[in-house]
Amino acid sequence: MALNRLKQAAAHVTGLAGPPYPLDPLSENEIQQAVAIIRKEHSGLFFNAVTLWEPRKAEMMAWVQDPKTTPRPHRVADVVAIGRGSKVYDGIVDLTEGKILNWELTDGVQPLITMEDLQIVETVVRKDPKVIEQCGIIGIPPEDMHKVYCDPWTIGYDERFGSGVRLQQALMYYRPHVDDSQYTYPLDFCPIYNADTQEIIHIDVPPVRRPLNKAAPNNYHAAAIEAEGGFRSDLKPINITQPDGVSFTMDGRIISWQNWKFHIGFNYREGIVLSNITFNDKGAERPTFWRLSLAEMVVPYGNPEHPHQRKHAFDLGEYGGGYMTNSLSLGCDCKGAIHYLDAAFVNRAGDPTTIENAICIHEEDAGILFKHTDFRDNSVTVTRGRKLIISQIFTAANYEYCVYWIFHQDGTIQLEIKLTGILNTYAMLPDEDTKGWGTQVYPGVNAHNHQHLFCLRVDPNVDGPNNTVFQVDATRGAGEVGSAENKYGNAFYAKKTRFETPEQAKSDYNGATSRTWDICNEARVNPYSGKPASYKLVSREVPELLPKEGGLVWKRAGFARHAVHVTKCEFLVLLVSFLAMLSVWLAVSNAHFLDHDSQIHPAGRHVPQTSGEPSMGLPQWIAENPDADITNTDIVLWHTFGLTHFPAPEDFPIMPAEPMSLLLRPRHFFTKNPCLDVPPSYCSVPSGMGKGVGAGLVDGLSRLAFGKEGAEGKKCCGK
Amino acid sequence: MALNRLKQAAAHVTGLAGPPYPLDPLSENEIQQAVAIIRKEHSGLFFNAVTLWEPRKAEMMAWVQDPKTTPRPHRVADVVAIGRGSKVYDGIVDLTEGKILNWELTDGVQPLITMEDLQIVETVVRKDPKVIEQCGIIGIPPEDMHKVYCDPWTIGYDERFGSGVRLQQALMYYRPHVDDSQYTYPLDFCPIYNADTQEIIHIDVPPVRRPLNKAAPNNYHAAAIEAEGGFRSDLKPINITQPDGVSFTMDGRIISWQNWKFHIGFNYREGIVLSNITFNDKGAERPTFWRLSLAEMVVPYGNPEHPHQRKHAFDLGEYGGGYMTNSLSLGCDCKGAIHYLDAAFVNRAGDPTTIENAICIHEEDAGILFKHTDFRDNSVTVTRGRKLIISQIFTAANYEYCVYWIFHQDGTIQLEIKLTGILNTYAMLPDEDTKGWGTQVYPGVNAHNHQHLFCLRVDPNVDGPNNTVFQVDATRGAGEVGSAENKYGNAFYAKKTRFETPEQAKSDYNGATSRTWDICNEARVNPYSGKPASYKLVSREVPELLPKEGGLVWKRAGFARHAVHVTKCEFLVLLVSFLAMLSVWLAVSNAHFLDHDSQIHPAGRHVPQTSGEPSMGLPQWIAENPDADITNTDIVLWHTFGLTHFPAPEDFPIMPAEPMSLLLRPRHFFTKNPCLDVPPSYCSVPSGMGKGVGAGLVDGLSRLAFGKEGAEGKKCCGK
Questions:
Q1: Is the pLDDT of residue A690 over 90?
Q2: Mean per-residue pLDDT for B346-369?
Q3: Active site at which residues (chains A, B) (predicted)?
Q4: Which CATH number applies to A115-227?
């Protein structure tokens, strides 16, 4: 095993391994290859994205089932490029065959803004005479323009400028010193940047001006803390070590751990993508989910004053959760034995570029997994749990999103997101009324109300691809108090509503009934409970989309209108063999937008500057066939969750991480607790009590904080 | 400091310390003393409880503020004893003065069932001829009666037997072998036990009989797992060590950690009680909460068939969360450097008895506390968090509740509860229809639907005792889409509803508006935000009480009718000095039931066999003065939260821990993030980027899981 690992590690570095797994992200070599193939036929392009065009589900499932006789899926690149005049090209390049399968000019769309696109704006802004003029009005002299900064956002959508020209809005800031946090010094005007001409085409200036904030800097960097009295010195170290290494193995990007097995993908949009997730149930590798990802998010701000309505970032669709990912090479964000994966992307010039240590894979202790004590004799079994965490952190301008995909030994998958980073801020006058749309978190700093709404894409595979979704509500039984059927009024049950069409499946959260959603395989009935094998979505942070129906955000972020949507993922059976697929491609040049495997992005493939008329993505797909039969078939469940944030001074100048979590829990999937064979930390049984036998393992490393007999360092449990 | 600790530790063991802190639980000596004082005047008693009669809030607050000149609160014992003929005595004994302050016979109540009360029943049941007869009917021969077990529960309330006689219901089980889990073999009948006469007075027999389950045992103990293939061997150790010890100090039972300071109490009912919780805000010790505890809970089961309506355990009020607490001396349930506190109680005979290591105090790494990367240059600050955990685990017959009071560095208090242990089960016939009231989790085993509803008692002290509660709902702004005030429809704000009377403050959860409740000090306005200093209750697992209005559980568990209740906690100013208090005692023998400091138990002081007519506890207190002014005054907030559990086979034979969590978060309490001075694990600033300076600490212990160059063990971050 160790030798195997060395080989893999070496192969990973040298690139001498066999062919990549079909779901592996494109390597630097493959990105180069794709660009070269395109350049043979097309010139004058800036590259926006070159990413894996994932093998279609039917083709991939067939290959997974029988890789020896099924043709290996080709390596195919999904390309977005931008030509002169903001022309957008969508292309599909077969790397295995070395040829372009599809290349089309797509009108009226704007691909996402890359980090390179962002970086340019600040330079342009600082030199623009009209920006310099505006800076002067609020108290920044021309010689201080190097102290002016901007966070360039996509413009969202502004009806004055439409979708034809590639635009960004520059949220303006100032730094008295280069190391000062700029969010203490928001400026009150907002330049609009044309990415094609690289110039400022307009500045939104508010009717009431707000001079540059005169408050002292409010920093969190080490020098600032030292100046304010220094760091606290009373934290003793907690060391977390794994002397024997990790409990998982990697075969390329396929990880195996505690009966779980799955592929870890990554792309520029969604970041981490987990595919073909199976759980080994006493020797049977049972499928659970075909593909899990965070597919989109939107952060609407609640201030109706112009132009703040434009602040509703789609951080994945407009910037890319992969592109914005932190390299963890500069500091361990996790503890213990860590395995990292890099992420390769294309840059604007068409060259490959890599974020080192983009994905972190590690284990953590998970506290008590289960425990029971018999009150009669204190015989007890207590077993500690372990969890596996696949994580990434991405920085969306001011904010940080820490995404943790957590696997538990009991078959549960948890998605935890921690929000940290810095509030988006806007200037305010002394004693200005925020009108309830924001909070003064520091003198002169208005942090607007906002929501963080994430869209989890769940492509289930619960004992196979044919699944059905039920809404489950805890519900009072029939019969009034005193009736024969419910004399004491205590009857309650799980009311299940079967989702039969996408239209009917549009469903909201109900906290009062502890609403959950079951993803079931109705053909696989649990032999004990008589209920279908299922995974239950348990999610409790599910606010409504607060922007109103018919408004800008409501139109653009259709996925956020309901907590759950379900769509049908129809196989095009013709696509199963690659030759057949190719013929389809040739026949239908638009095919990759039409086939259901491409229904990945619930706010559309190209999100910036969509007007929401019509709403792209999810509402469009559902409208195409609102009455499709979504029972016992291949479906996708879309879940929007998140939180509403009314800022407070505690969140500034940097926000303590706020966690949020949801679970996918197996219910009626197993016939018993699937982790009974995890070694207990202590186990005794009635027949052994008082006989000094039956005691199992204890943690020999833990010790008493203060020695009971006055001697420090005594081990716990008298061991 | 180390010497100080040694002294404390030694004093703790030898009992040679000065007087106990007024909030400390009674020691074994004090319990003995209380019993001796009572025995001088009363005989023939069994002791049910001898616990600290906590100093009244006004008296204690006065003493805390000025301990040198204020009289030290006396040590006083709160006593419940049972005399012949189920006579219940409530008494108050002044240990400092050595005399009984109050002693009364309380009619028509039944104190909680102690572990000793429970232990007796099984012996009686096994010998009872009618029970033996019933066992015979379902297939257990008389010679196997030693294989018959019961979990004795309070009877709850059964109108056939009323409240006058002390009763238990025996939930019956069978073990083929002494080490087998009995919950696989529930029996179908239910004997009623008279605790006074120690005999079975009735047996509830269902109309349809269910013979003893013939299924094979379903066990989780080590021998069973070994027999089924053994334990998994692929878990490598994760070692958590604290070589320099813990970061907290203890002064008696007062803990100081990361600006937090509070007293850790414990009693037989609530278990852990945290008092006088303050946060040191740059030198100022600011009060946050006067007293926090889990005050009550109820576990209603949802099967309306007789006599299952009686299954609705009030685990704290009917059994005692302290009495049922696990001793952690037999196994470390936490990792690292642990400090334990013991818990002393009285036993039935009046002798003191101690649960060793009842409370566990330890720290854990808490992951990222905050992080921000500047996308321009990748300058970054990342700081890891730490948490302090005060925990206990109690076993309520079949179930385990793990209670974690978690303190965060950012001023947040988290209450996490993990549910584990074993489902309560009932017998079922092959192919019997559970009618939706339960689930067959194993052949012949029906686990009924149930709720776990906890009542958190919050006695706030947010910058002082005069607080006000607001309900907060995320709400859409006025103005339709297209209107001048809300053109794009994106306006939203935090709608605040001020609670002015207990009647108006009865409030339910609303998941759609992400409802929270703010506990505010309206006199302490945040200088930046202009909003009152507050702590926000953020709780997302808040199901409705499913038993119907007017039914048995609804009547008995009044606290569970709403998510939040607020009551007024009126000081009786006369009580401030002890002499004055004494005179009140003499004047009003019932005083300790009347004064508001005694409003601790929201389902009543004596819970077993209450009929709910009238509802005891919270509904009673509110009905006494529904229109009391609860603004800017001393209040108590009662929060009912929990979950609804529809069992599945995965939960059996022992349930993987299911966690649930709520937060008390400071909002507008601080003027900035209060944990900026936690040392970062990495910090660089723009001015230092590329110059090789500015890098702070990294975790030198973490390492790569698989060496990048093929060599294992390489440290992370190239250090």
A1: no
A2: 97
A3: 315, 399
A4: 3.10.450.40
Asked if B408's CB is within 8 angstroms of A677's CB, the reply is no
Q: Any CB–CB contact under 8 A between B703 and chain A?
A: yes
CA distances from A15 to A2, A352, B549, B711 (A): 19, 15, 68, 17
Q: ipTM of this predicted complex?
A: 0.95
Is the pLDDT confidence value at B80 over 60? yes
Residue B708, pLDDT above cutoff 50: yes
Burial classification of residue A283, based on how many CB atoms lie within 10 Å of its CB (0-12 exposed, 13-18 middle, 19 or more buried)? exposed
Contacts of B141 (CB under 8 A, 6+ apart): B135
- In terms of CATH architecture, what is B2-106? Roll (3.10)
**What is the predicted pLDDT for the residue at B236?**
96
Residue A85: band (very low, low, confident or very high) from pLDDT cuts 50, 70, 90: confident
Distance CA A638, CA A189 (A): 37
Q: Does domain A21-106 bear CATH number 3.40.1190.10?
A: no
Residue B521 to residues B469, B495, B633, Cα–Cα distance (Å): 9, 18, 9
Within an 8 Å CB–CB cutoff, is residue A57 touching chain B?
no
Q: Which residues of B touch A304 (CB under 8 A)?
A: 477, 479, 485-488, 490-491
Q: Does A3 touch chain B (CB under 8 A)?
A: no
Q: Which candidate in A301, A319, A399, A509 is catalytic?
A: A399
- Count Cβ neighbours within 10 Å for each residue of B661-683 and write b for 16 or more, e otherwise: bbbbbbbbbbbbbbbbbbbbbbb
Q: Who among B308, B529, B699 is closest to A332 (CB)?
A: B699
* Per-residue DSSP letter, B248: -
pLDDT, position B473: 98
Nearest-CB residue to A654 (from B326, B370, B493): B370
For residue B278, the tally of other CB atoms under 10 A from its CB is: 18
Distance from CA of B131 to the nearest CA of A (A): 20
Residue A6, chain B, CB below 8 Å: the answer is yes
Structural domain boundaries of chain B?
2-106, 115-217, 684-719
Q: Is the confidence at residue A13, as pLDDT, over 50?
A: no
Asked if A208 reaches chain B (Cβ–Cβ under 8 Å), the answer is no
Asked if B378 and A330 come within 8 Å (Cβ–Cβ), the reply is yes
Give the chain B residue whose CA is nearest to the CA of A396.
Answer: B375
Say which CATH topology domain B115-217 has: Nuclear Transport Factor 2; Chain: A, (3.10.450)
Determine which of A258, A665, A702 to mutate to test the interface with B (most B C-beta atoms within 10 Å).
Answer: A702
**Arithmetic mean of pLDDT, A344-367:** 97
User: Which range, of A28-32, A365-369, A663-667, B681-685, averages the lowest pLDDT?
Assistant: B681-685
Give the integer Cα–Cα distance in Å for A345 and A26.
8
Q: How far is A258 from chain B (nearest CA, A)?
A: 8
Report pLDDT for A328.
87
CATH says A249-422+450-475+492-645+654-667 is which class? mainly beta
Residue that is written with structure tokens 């079922």 in the block: B428
Let me know: does B390 contact B372? Beta carbons within 8 Å.
Answer: no
Looking at residue A595, its pLDDT comes to 62
Smallest Cβ–Cβ distance between B512 and the set A238, A382, A544 belongs to A544
Write out the two tokens for A552. 């800008």
